[in-house]
Amino acid sequence: MSVPNVPSTKIIRLRYFALLREQAGTAAEQRPTTARTYAELYGELQACYGFSLPVGQMKVAVNDTFVELSAPVQEGDDVVFIPPVAGG
User: How far apart are CA 51 and CA 35, in angstroms?
Assistant: First the structure.
């Protein structure tokens, strides 16, 4: 019997680059999440690691394809949040 409106836990893989890698203290990790969207997932990571960049500045790639932050998180996803890049 399932409980309505209780998000299920999924195991995903995260890779971090640039400022996010510095703030997370790791280049990659596998972790459980109950986030329904990538925006929610980023919020979980902000709470855990104190990420200083707002979600609105992030791009997200899932399984090597850019997706919307509102896309649903799936079990086994390989996720990379990409911070803004300054160039010269």
Answer: 17
The contacts of residue 11 (CB under 8 Å, 6+ apart) are 30, 31, 32, 33, 75, 76
Query: What sections of 1-81 are H helices per DSSP?
Result: 18-24, 38-49
pTM for the structure as a whole:
0.88
**Which residue ranges form the domains of the chain, and what is each CATH number?**
10-82 (3.10.20.30)
Q: pLDDT 10s per residue in the chain (88 long)?
A: 555 666 789 999 999 999 999 999 999 999 999 999 999 999 999 999 999 999 999 999 999 999 999 999 999 999 999 988 765 4
